[in-house]
Structure formats: structure tokens, C-alpha cells
Amino acid sequence: MQRRSGIWVVSGIAAAVVVTASAYAAPAPRTPIETHVLDSTYSCQVRPERYVDLDASVTIKPEPGQVEPAQARVTTLPKTIQRNGVDYNLPQILFQNVKNSLEVDNSTCRRSSRKVSLKAAGLPPYETVTPTFVGEIQARCTSTKRVLVRFRIALKNHTPQQALIAVRNDDAKGRRLAFLNWRPRKISSRLAKSCVSLSG
């Protein structure tokens, strides 16, 4: 019995050592967080009617288990594409709170070296939206035949986290049209008096 007890005791100690060793095992290395900023200015062609549409929304959950990610869109020309037999409006500049989501219509917009301030000076406050208040900004602004769009997007692991967007006429006067401070859960906007709401 003593011999058997000894075996049991030794086995018990061995098991305890294994548990203790696993408890002090080195943690798995964490994936490093990558952050960077995209800062670009584009000159985009405008439709003959001379207006641009702005659409920016926060992240919402319309139904349990569903999420509609925050996004921002600038549309200067009417374009549609077909996916799975359904027509979709194609904005000239689009990004969402989704990895690698920035899209620019290079057939309509070209990079510009003109300076565009990322400040709201000269534009009256328009609206601030959140997931529990309105949720989306939709506006239409009259413009010249081309507009300048500058965006500065802060990304984490290639996913937009915050952005400043400025839109103005691409002509000698360079009149400011719109300024957005975009975040997935809060968007504040300033619009020129020539802009009108498309919401509701």
C-alpha cells in the first residue's frame, strides 16, 4: 500500500508541476497596432447641373446582430454600377469604418496640389449627428464645374477612425462649400448657405 501510495503521491506532484508550469507560460505575442494618416486633395468634375452631394453617416445597428458601418461619400457626377443584378450609385469619393474601404473615382477626380484648408472658418454650423440623434447628414451644394475635395483620414490597422473633409470650388475664388469632422459615432458639419438638406 505504501508503494502504491508513493506512486499516487508522485503522480499527484507531477500533475501539480505541469499545471504550475502552464500557469507561468509566456503569453502569446500581440499583433502590433498599425496607425497612419492619409492626406490627399482631388479635383473632381461636376455634373452639368453644377451641384455636389454629401452623405455621411455614423455606425448604427438597425436590428440585433446587424451593423451598418459609418461612412462618408462625395458625389459629383451621376454614375451607377451593377452588382448581382442591382444598380448602385457610385460616389466619386467613399470610405467606411471598414478595413481598406477608401475608393476614389480616378476617371472623374485627379490629384491636385492646390492648398485646401482643413478648417471650418467661414462656414456656419449645420448639424451634429450620433447613433441616437438623426444618424446621417445628407446635403446638396451648388458649385462650379469642378470642386476640390481634401480629406485627412486617420487609420488604425487600415480602418478609418477619424477624418476631416473639406470641399470647395476649384476656381479662382475657391469658395468653401462644406467641412465635415467625421467619426464612426459622431459627425459634425458646417455647410455654405448655398447648400440644402436632403434628409427627410
Overview of this structure, please?
- The protein has 200 residues and is mainly beta.
- The protein has one domain (35-197).
- It is 11% helix and 46% strand.
- It has one helix and 15 strands; from the N terminus they run αβββββββββββββββ.
- It has one helix at 2-23, and strands at 35-45, 51-57, 71-75, 80-83, 86-89, 93-96, 103-104, 109-111, 125-129, 136-142, 146-156, 159-169, 176-183, 186-191, 195-197.
- The strands form three sheets. Strands 8-1-11-12-13-14-9 form a seven-stranded antiparallel sheet, with no helix packed on it.
- Strand 4 and strand 5 (86-89) form a beta hairpin.
- The protein is globular and about 60 Å long.
- The N and C termini lie far apart (86 Å).
- 27% of the residues are buried.
- Residues 1-24 have low confidence and may be disordered.
Detail the poorly predicted runs. Answer: 1-24
Helix/strand order, N-terminal first:
HEEEEEEEEEEEEEEE
Measured distance between first and last alpha carbons: 86 Å
How are strands sequenced across the largest beta sheet?
8-1-11-12-13-14-9
